[in-house]
# Entry
Amino acid sequence: MAELNVTELDFDTIKANLRTYLAAQPEFTDYDFTGSALSLLLDVLAYNTHYNAVLANLQANEMFIDTAIKRSSVVSLAKMLGYSPRSTTSAKAQVNLTVTKDVTSGSTLSITPSVKFNATINNTSFTFNVNESQTATVDGNNEFVFTNVELIEGIRLSNSFLIGADNTSGPLIIPNNNVDTTTIEVDVQVSSSNLSSSTWTKTSSIVDITSTSKVFWVEENNQGQYQVVFGDDNVGAALLAGNIVTISYIVSEGAAANGARTFTLVGDIDGETGVNITIVSPAAGGAASESIDSVRFNAPKFNANRNRAITTEDYRTLIKQNLTKAREVTVWGGEENSPPVYGTVYISIDPISGSVLTEADKNFVKETVLRPRSVMSIKHEFVDPDYLYLGLEGVVNYNPKMTNLKASDLSVLVEAEIQDYFDEELGTLSKTFFLSRVSERVKLLNTSVVSSLFKMRLQKRIAVGISSTSGYTAILNYLTAIDPETVRSSNFITSINGLQYNGYLQDFSDDAVQSDTGHGTIKFIDRDTNTPVATVGTVHYDGGIIRLNNVIVTEYLGNVNTLHLSLRPQPLYQNITSGTVRTSDVEAFAVAARAAKNTIITLDDSENNSAAGIAPGLLISCRPFTQQ
Amino acid sequence: MAILTPNKLYKDLDVTFTAHPETQDVLKKIDNNAIKQSLKLLLFTNIGERLFQPDVGSKIYGLLFEPIDPITTEVLKRSIENTIETYEPRVLLEGVDVVPNYDDNSYEVSIYFTVLGINQPTSLTVTLERLR
# Structure
């Protein structure tokens, strides 16, 4: 019985189906020869079917957010989920300005958004503007000092629209690409003869919007441009015919301006040109508009959390959506802390540039992003990322008959491969280090590699202030069980009972027979006599916790400015994870669950420093090995 | 010598799509005529012209714009032979004569072949001349 196959999309299969059909007909026999007229007709039929099949397939694909390819389709589908894709975002920098009073007659000076600065990165010049006006009063040095001035990258532009009777709700299309929608401001002038105007407010929801609210919404249209939409006198006030709407905004270069740190004033500030600029934080946070993949990923999650901050994923999605500076975000409840802190949500953000987020950014996340969306009575606390430096000492055996590489060349390759592993799979929050992954990558690096063995070292770098009286007290979490009697610090000079000692910290197991699950003490060892001088802390081996109590540093040795406290993990605990909470395996030494989610595991880049007593972080030696 | 009658091995549409005067049906091409029509269609199809079949056709369109000389004549002959041998399996090609006409900037092409299953020597003669 003849079958009609309707599932094929490609030309060749469709034509083959048509040929199969004709094979059963006696009327024409030349359907199978390329040059025949019948073959030409089959081509035309197959082309036509192919067109229709592709069109139907494309239409079906574009109807669903998972399969849509065109940006306009994805954005439109995201709009139905209440999600507005992030626009291009301008980089922002903070500077201090000191303006020498020269021509100003008054005692105050103001900087406004019209003041511009130039910055150059890789021979490309970028314009930065003052983000918000500031006024300073002349000081005793005859200078105006402006502190923490926020500069925003981009070119300020504005467009005016005369409103007709048929578009009192818009949309008004902004005729520029790369608009940073967070900078859009709308002023509505009554008419060309009545110059009084009012500023309308941007909103993203209809909560608290009445029929007279002077608000506007910003949407991305199907051409990829942004459009401003007004109310209809039911939800939000509509415009009136004859109104003149002025939309001002910044057109940004996005991520290209990140990293700018040298700024020069363009023109003058009210005639003053003697301006000294010092950088507080370099330009960061610039980003391209949200990619199609990102919209596809974020829009359903945004819809799932209904614009509320309740679960961990809600927090992560909201913060990543609103703060382009965030590379990774971890969030956990205070009940996971040891001791628990109920009613507090802890947030740790790994910024793309620098190691710590600025206070202004933290405040933005706390007050603008989270506060309006989170549950009442919940507090938000930021915890800066804590770095755990992981060093590796390894021996790689290789078969010299299978490679032309010398041992030293192979060592360089192995070190680069390990560095790649850290760059690609670690280096931010919520990641796990697997020692076996290092071995796998090294094995696959070169066919000559026979085996590899590694010893790990975990290191914290503690910024203990230099003081001869006040000590440093802290609890350090190494995320894994500590091998007894492996703790050792870098060399420093301390003051104990008024006497100066040159030495280091070391742990001593309290048990006569060393126990992995036991406790120990941290003592200061005098290098001159090689004997303990004082007890300055405790160590919980199984819990991976070191408590330092009143450690005094009067001087660092070997040109370092932090106290390096290194140790080795127990052999069965060499996978280091920062994303989970670990409890003790042994009841007798049970420790409370503790959060370690603000830890970033990174490669120990220490170099050999004998004065400070610090061994290299990465030390690989390759040895030829041939089976006899 | 006995003349073989057509045995309706090959039946194709007439690409002129002319109606039969009595039945008003589209005319057919049978056997040798079907093959001749096929050869013309193949030779006059430029390579790359057919969608999804980029190799079908011959190079003669391009060659007509080359200088008319013995080299081009030979290349034209090879191109015709190659196209027929590749895309017309119903034909046993016996020879291709390409005679350049220097005065008219044209070629007289004669293709001698036997259609498989019919075994009657046949020839197709066409004049190739560029139109612009």
Observations:
- DSSP finds three helices and five strands in chain B.
- Residues 70-87 of chain B form the longest helix (18 residues).
- The beta strands of chain B are 11-13, 28-30, 91-101, 106-115, 121-129.
